[in-house]
Amino acid sequence: MAALAVAVMGGGMADYLADLVDVRLASPGVALVTLNLPQVRNAMTTELTSAWVTAMDRIAGDRSLRVVVVTGAGSAFCSGADLSWLDQGNLSDNTPDRLRDKMLPFYRAWLAPQQLSVPVVAAVNGPAVGAGLCLALACDLRYGAPSATFSAPFTQLGTHGGMAVSWLLPEAVGMPRAREMLYTGRVVSAEEALAWGLVSDIADDVVSRALEVAESVAQAAPIATRLTKAGLGQSSRGGFEAALQWEALAQPVTMATADIHKGIKARRQHKTPTFEGS
């Protein structure tokens, strides 16, 4: 695997290039991340996972970014985990404890969009299968191409689901629909995904649509947006009281910023504010 090269771009943004994961500045504050292993439908191989981890670490450390868009090269978004290693080597080594030690870091690596402080938008350009579906679910917003499909065929392969699918999928589509997808493994079309709320829109050029949304998000106050993402995570796991307590802390933080004064002034003048994150 080629090392992830770093080239400094204008405006202080770093443009990270790799053979397997390509990260580029799409517009000010917006990074476009492309899984680039189309010959295996962007399956999560060991090499792709390593490149993804490197890219996510560098993105997490880039304070100039306000939004990230994730998509796949070729005809698929991501075909899921590469499990070919299960049939290699000494099969007696595949004990539950050893497999858990292998799978948990893999889960955490690909669920990195949940841990990024900025919103992440999935541009699902084709099939999102198994762990690939979970990657899309880990993103804050999802947009689909007409060719996008979604499936969780874990039980049909003889395995339990991973990557927090038993939490992420019900959160996205509700428990009854999650049960159907997990029990049957059936493929959900883009149109059905839109009706279910699994994607927010369908577009022929899904990357352009996702970037359009990302640019809109990037124009919002960055401190408020980061805190909003954190607050949504708090409330979805902790319920009403956790949301109330978080907001009682986060809203006063934003009220102490210069951005709120810019926002109020711009609203009064019917102008678009320029937020600097201060």
Protein architecture, described:
There is one protein chain. The protein has 278 residues and is α/β, with parallel strands linked by helices. It has 10 helices and 10 strands. It has helices at residues 46-60, 96-110, 112-115, 131-138, 165-173, 175-184, 190-196, 206-218, 222-255, 258-268, and strands spanning 5-8, 14-17, 21-27, 30-35, 67-72, 120-124, 127-129, 141-144, 149-151, 188-189. The strands form 3 sheets. A 5-stranded mixed beta sheet has the order 3-4-5-6-8, with helices on both faces. It has a 3-stranded mixed beta sheet with strand order 7-9-10. A two-stranded antiparallel sheet has the order 1-2. Helix 4 (131-138) crosses helix 5 (165-173) and helix 5 packs across helix 6 (175-184). The termini are far apart. The model is unreliable at 1-17 (pLDDT under 50).
Gist of the model:
The chain has 278 residues and is α/β, with parallel strands linked by helices.
Q: Topology of this protein?
A:
Blueprint: E1 5-8, E2 14-17, E3 21-27, E4 30-35, H1 46-60, E5 67-72, H2 96-110, H3 112-115, E6 120-124, E7 127-129, H4 131-138, E8 141-144, E9 149-151, H5 165-173, H6 175-184, E10 188-189, H7 190-196, H8 206-218, H9 222-255, H10 258-268
Parallel strand pairs: 4-5, 5-6, 6-8, 7-9
Antiparallel strand pairs: 1-2, 3-4, 9-10
Helix pairs in contact: 4-5, 5-6
